[in-house]
Amino acid sequence: MNKISIAYKTKTNLIKEIEKDERIKVLEKKSFFQKLSFLKKEYADIYFHSGTLDDISLTNIKNAKKVIVNCKKLKDDILKKVDVLEENIKVIYPSVNLNYQKAKKVKESLCKKFDIDSTPKIIYFTAKNLKTSGVKDFFDIIVSLNSMNKQIIISSDKNQITSLKFLISKYNFGGEVLLLEDYENENELFLAADIFILPTYNKSFATNILRAMYFKCAVLTTSINHASELIDVFATMQKPDDPSTSFKVDALLSREDDLKTIQKANRKIAKKYELSKNINKLNTVLDNI
After folding, report:
1. In the prediction, which pLDDT does 51 show?
2. Is 66 helix (H, G, I), strand (E, B) or coil?
3. Residues paired with 277 in a beta bridge
4. Number of continuous H segments (helices) and E segments (strands) in the chain
5. Cβ-count burial of 212 within 10 angstroms (0-12 exposed, 13-18 middle, 19+ buried)?
6. Cα(144)–Cα(146) distance, rounded to whole angstroms?
7. Residue stretches of the chain with pLDDT short of 70
8. What whole-number distance in Å separates Cα of residue 147 and Cα of residue 200?
9. Is 29 left (phi over 0), alpha (psi -120 to 50) or beta?
């Protein structure tokens, strides 16, 4: 049986699963000396692309039978730069492989653990790099809110939170902001949260947006980020310091019914990208190689 060869820039949950398929052969990344050799180069039947379009990516895309990208914006960028058929580029959004639990109990348990009131709505912010993900803009949004119906939680690794403490000292938040470093079960924080805000400067698809949606959060993020393709106009920030954001968050904090409607709609959208469903989408591509 001729196997279908694949190559990828970043290993995702979807790729980990498809590697188990007996039809699949993964092309190993070439060493420096292999790249210099005059041996015939082997290209993958299916190339999974994410992130920036560098020269290596463009070469792999040109020579692949099918290309899988994680958003429509990347597909558009490829079509502008590479002479390939549009039908050969397939969009499969990042996969969700998470254990959903009832948020109310998780929130009550979390608030009890940290001795905070479980009544206010939790606004959550997290990122590996807080600065490029817009933490200063996040603080400016929080400062501008009129509603008192809020508890802020920010989590990241120890180094990020340590650096953040200097910035946060410039704001008069009092006990309104809870900083958590190296928190073991981050899914708990998403489950407990009501609103997730990510005023990021990064273009690459922020998977935390999809995770927040799956865990039934209202989300807001910048239009520059590829994950914004999954949210509506109301939830889209034109830029990290979009002045309308605080008004939108205040509206969510004061209108319980609207907040619940958005939360339910977000979960419904995110469920479309569960790992099992994305595997089915990919199998359709494999069947046509």
Report:
1. 87
2. strand
3. none
4. 12, 11
5. buried
6. 7
7. 1, 30-40
8. 23
9. beta
CA 208 – CA 190 distance, rounded (Å): 9
- Beta-strand pair 24-26/218-222: unpaired
For the purposes of burial, counting CB atoms within 10 Å of the CB of 260, is it exposed (0-12), middle (13-18) or buried (19 or more)? middle
Q: Which two tokens stand for residue 75?
A: 């597909």
Helix (H, G, I), strand (E, B) or coil at 89: strand
For 24, 56, 59, 61, 251, the CA distances from 44, given in Å and listed in that order, are 11, 13, 11, 9, 49
Edge-to-edge strand list for the sheet holding 89-91: 24-26, 4-8, 46-49, 66-69, 89-91
Give pLDDT, residue 175: 77
Distance CA 129, CA 20 (A): 33
Distance, in Å, from the CA atom of 29 to the CA atom of 9, rounded to the nearest integer, reads 10
Provide the whole-model pTM. Answer: 0.93
Using an 8 Å Cβ cutoff, are 222 and 229 in contact?
A: no
Residue spans of beta strands (DSSP E) within the chain: 4-8, 24-26, 46-49, 66-69, 89-91, 121-126, 150-156, 177-181, 195-198, 218-222, 236-237
| pLDDT tens-digit readout, 45-56 | 999 999 889 999
Q: Is-contact 191 106, C-beta < 8 A?
A: yes
What is the largest distance, in Å, between two alpha-carbon atoms of the chain? 67
C-alpha closest to that of 200 among 178, 181, 219, 176: 219
